[in-house]
Write a structure and sequence with these properties.
This protein is α+β, with helices and mostly antiparallel strands and 441 residues long. It folds into three domains: 46 residues, Transferase, Pyrimidine Nucleoside Phosphorylase, Chain A, domain 3 (Up-down Bundle), CATH 1.20.970; 257 residues, Nucleoside phosphorylase/phosphoribosyltransferase catalytic domain (Pyrimidine Nucleoside Phosphorylase, Chain A, domain 2), CATH 3.40.1030.10; 90 residues, Aldehyde Oxidoreductase, domain 3 (Alpha-Beta Complex), CATH 3.90.1170. The protein has 17 helices and 14 strands. The strands form four sheets. Strands 1-4-5-13-14 form a five-stranded mixed beta sheet, with helices on both faces. Strand 4, helix 10 and strand 5 form a beta-alpha-beta unit. One of its GO terms (molecular function) is thymidine phosphorylase activity. Its EC number is 2.4.2.2. Belongs to the thymidine/pyrimidine-nucleoside phosphorylase family.
Length: 441
């Protein structure tokens, strides 16, 4: 088989078979197929799309390109959660303990952040002593005993995807539904969970900017999950404004602790309860979503989820003092309020610009090798639909470099538009996609 023939076939709009896709993935992973030929195939796929069968074969081949995690030693149905990324997306820190408190094992593999999208590991490392460098045996033991553990993503997990994504990133072939779906699902499937919950973000701060594109991506991933024998549910959630108030590592940890104490922003709490309820349902710990939600709320109200969070942090070396006294988490030397210069209702907030502002303050990574300032970030105190008066505090900037405050202040000010007329609040959860179809909410 020649790579030239595979490229030509796809360029002509024809459907690649399983053997041709496996030939490409294997060859590109081991280095026998060069970047320029892989780039040509990615561009042909970008323009001519992929069939459902092709997408499945690509996902399967990438999943099998490296290690596949064996979670069979963990008792119960293992449910994984994946978010497509957003601004202030603190859900894993809250959902994990909520679900674990319901008796569902959460064996979580998480990554570090790149750009303004924060990584779960970066956030957790705001807690003194916390580490993800634990042995496989310790990881499995913690999940069996505590029901929750987090480790870093293995470099050998779906290595074909890692290589292909880097190539797509520099050849303008990232935004193709089939390529995105296969990228996400190959890693989730290789991570070994029995069922998968997908939080697909929609809006200005998300990768999928519009509802129709998000639905297409969700359906593709749910179909892949079903074809691979993994029950999969996708929840489409709003990202036309930051989730919660906090954008930044230690700030988000503090906010997660607030929610686990049954306080915190209403939107973040509501979404975490809903996501956790779907995970409990997928784990067969409830017969209906309403029953699952009642259990999740009980775990939050009773303090059981907070207790589970503490056990998880302690098991991985974290200092519990910061959980009881969040003011001991990393703090920025400088703070500045962003104030409104007009009267009116907030009409829109460019969520991605809020993320860029947090990044400019030091909360994210410009490159893989950048150093994160764990204390830096933004607290966004207002939401779309809020009535604002001139002089009201819209946001609070946190930085350890005073010179960075001016740029972030301008970015956030320009990210917000106002209206003289009343503006409707944004709908937090837009739809749910299962193998039975779309369920609008």
């Amino acid at each position: 088989m020649r790579m030239y023939d595979v490229i030509y076939k796809k360029r002509q709009g024809m459907v690649l078979n399983k053997e041709e896709i496996e030939f490409f993935v294997t060859g590109y992973t081991n280095g026998t197929i060069p970047d320029y030929q892989a780039s040509a195939l990615m561009m042909a796929i970008y323009f001519n799309k992929m069939s459902k069968e092709e997408t499945f074969y690509l996902t399967d081949a990438m999943m099998r390109s490296g290690d596949q995690i064996d979670l069979s030693q963990i008792e119960g149905i293992k449910v994984d959660k994946h978010s497509t990324g957003g601004v202030g997306d603190t859900t894993t820190l809250i959902v994990g303990p909520l679900v674990a408190a319901c008796g569902v094992p959460v064996a979580k593999m998480s990554g570090r952040g790149l750009g303004h999208t924060g990584g779960t590991i970066d956030k957790l490392e705001s807690i003194k002593g916390f580490h993800v460098e634990i042995s496989n045996e310790e990881f499995l033991r913690n999940v069996n005993q505590i029901k929750l553990a987090v480790i870093g993503q293995s470099g050998d997990l779906a290595p074909a995807d890692k290589k292909l994504y880097a190539l797509r990133d520099v050849t303008a072939t990232v935004d193709n539904i089939s390529l995105i779906a296969s990228s996400i699902m190959s890693k989730k499937l290789a991570a070994g969970a029995n069922a998968i919950l997908l939080d697909v973000k929609v809006g200005s701060g998300a990768f999928m900017k519009d509802f129709d594109s998000a639905v297409s991506l969700a359906m593709e991933m749910v179909e892949i999950g079903k074809a691979m024998g993994r029950e999969t549910i996708a929840v489409l959630t709003d990202m036309d404004q930051p989730l919660g108030y906090a954008v930044g590592n230690s700030l988000e940890v503090q906010e997660a602790i607030e929610v686990l104490n049954n306080r915190g922003p209403e939107d973040l709490r509501t979404l975490c309860v809903k996501l956790a309820s779907y995970m409990v349902l997928l784990a067969k710990k409830a017969n209906t979503l309403a029953e699952a939600e009642a259990t999740v709320i009980e775990m939050l109200d009773s303090g059981a989820a907070l207790k589970k969070f503490k056990a998880f942090i302690q098991a991985q070396g974290g200092d519990l003092t910061a959980i009881d006294h969040p003011q001991q988490l990393p703090k920025a030397r400088y703070k500045r309020n962003v104030v409104a210069s007009v009267n009116g209702y907030i009409q829109s907030i460019k969520a991605d610009d809020i993320g860029v502002a947090a990044l400019s303050l030091g909360a994210g990574r410009e490159t893989k090798d950048s150093t994160i300032d764990l204390a830096a970030g933004v607290m966004m105190y207002k939401k779309v639909g809020d009535l604002i008066k001139r002089g009201d505090v819209i946001a609070e900037l946190h930085a350890n470099n005073e010179s960075k405050l001016d740029v972030a202040n301008t970015t956030i000010t320009n990210a917000i538009t106002y209206s003289d007329r009343k503006v409707e609040k944004l709908k937090l959860i837009k739809a749910v996609v299962t193998d039975k179809g779309i369920q609008p909410l």
